[in-house]
Design goal:
Number of helices: 6
Order of helices and strands: EEEHEHHHHH
Structural class: alpha+beta
Strand order of the largest sheet: 1-2-3-4
Strand content: 15-25%
Radius of gyration: 13 Å
Distance between the termini: 23 Å
Shape: globular
Oligomer: single chain
Largest sheet: 4 strands, antiparallel
Helix content: 40-55%
Length: 98
């Protein structure tokens, strides 16, 4: 979902035969997550936490480096819809409820 070549920090999707399984998060970025979620691997059910915590970075990376058709095949949505103000507010609201 994102990678910074200078710091080597990244967030990677785990996708298996049944679809999206979760995230692998580099050590540098784990520290930016809420305390109970500072782990290398997070299950897909915690996507809202990852997306809310790194929304700007993920959006910028996806818009600049991910092929639109590949993004749509994974998320079943285009980037404008996926990163809409409504989606961002929903992710943030879920994070605030922790």
């Amino acid at each position: 979902m994102m990678f910074d070549p200078e710091t080597k920090a990244g967030i990677y999707l785990h996708i298996g035969d049944s679809g999206f399984n979760g995230f692998a998060i580099s050590e540098k970025l784990q520290q930016q997550l809420p305390e109970n979620f500072q782990k290398q691997y997070l299950e897909a059910k915690y996507a809202h936490i990852v997306l809310a915590s790194f929304c700007e970075e993920i959006e910028a990376y996806c818009r600049n480096h991910v092929v639109i058709t590949e993004f749509q095949s994974i998320f079943l949505s285009n980037q404008n819809t996926f990163f809409s103000d409504y989606a961002k507010a929903a992710w943030q609201q879920s994070l605030n409820l922790l």
